[in-house]
Amino acid sequence: MARIFCIANQKGGVGKTTTTVNLAAGLAKVGQRVLMIDLDPQGNATMGSGVDKRKLEYTIYDVLLESAGIAEARVRSEKCGYDVLGANRELAGAEVELVDVERREKRLKQAIAAVDAEYDFVLVDCPPSLSLLTLNGLCAAHGVIVPMQCEYFALEGLSDLVNTIKQVHANLNKDLQIIGLLRVMFDPRITLQQQVSEQLKAHFGEKVFNTVIPRNVRLAEAPSYGLPGVVFDPAARGSQAFVEFAKEMVDRISDMR
Ligand code: ATP
Ligand code: MG
């Protein structure tokens, strides 16, 4: 059975997509079978996996509206070593179209169930909001990975997400938990970042992943080549950190089982 994780944070530009595609590539590299689902109409995780979002026959939109299954809609990213269920602007309409349907927040969960046995990991890249799309992700998942920058308002922004996760846990998905907080774009030379990092550990203890992702320009350059940094430049510090993180996730799920 696949372990399903949302990469979520309602704050924009914190590194969700970078985390999703690089974790997917890192997991593939250590021999895991991975499906990456892009749940953001921006389609950045799709493009960043070398899949052209404008040329897809089916996307996550069709899956949520039940006009295609994941088995038909997914494509293989040969270069990256994982499968991709892509997204594009069309997905923005799904929010409205789903409003009146029954069990609208469980659509993704149902769809994943049909391909569950084919994967070790399903990773869901969420949009920067706590919308119905993100809710579909949270209802489908066993856990949430929260990438965050160690900045002044980091903890404050976290409380909305933590509350949403608590509510989903209580009402819709009793499996859901925060797997961990991932410190990203970290620069150890900045004292404030070290301080916030310490605060995070004091507050959340074990829930803070051991791996820290450094700020690394190769990770930022990779998407313009349609690749995760892990594939684009495996020797880069940021890429190595993501492979370490993939190994940490493999260890965590063996603890979860
Ligand atoms: P959105 O909320 O819009 O979906 P996001 O949370 O998915 O954004 P990303 O797109 O992953 O965030 O990252 C935001 C920007 O920061 C991108 O330009 C990305 O290349 C850059 N970036 C992410 N992680 C790193 C890193 N470790 N080092 C350097 N740049 C990074
Ligand atoms: Mg993103």
Strand tally, please? Answer: 8
Broad shape: globular
Structural class: alpha/beta
CATH topology-level name: Rossmann fold
CATH class: Alpha Beta
Note the total helix count. 12
For the record, the CATH architecture stands as 3-Layer(aba) Sandwich
Attached small molecules: adenosine-5'-triphosphate, magnesium ion
Draw up the topology in text.
Layout: E1 3-7, H1 16-29, E2 34-38, H2 44-47, H3 60-64, H4 70-73, E3 75-77, E4 82-85, H5 94-97, H6 107-113, E5 121-125, H7 132-140, E6 143-148, H8 154-171, E7 177-186, H9 191-204, E8 208-214, H10 217-221, H11 229-232, H12 237-256
Parallel strand pairs: 1-5, 1-6, 2-4, 2-5, 6-7, 7-8
Antiparallel strand pairs: 3-4
Helix pairs in contact: 1-12, 6-7
Magnesium ion binds at residues 16-17, 40, 44.
Quick structural gist:
This protein has 257 residues and is α/β, with parallel strands linked by helices. It has helices at 16-29, 44-47, 60-64, 70-73, 94-97, 107-113, 132-140, 154-171, 191-204, 217-221, 229-232, 237-256, and strands spanning 3-7, 34-38, 75-77, 82-85, 121-125, 143-148, 177-186, 208-214.
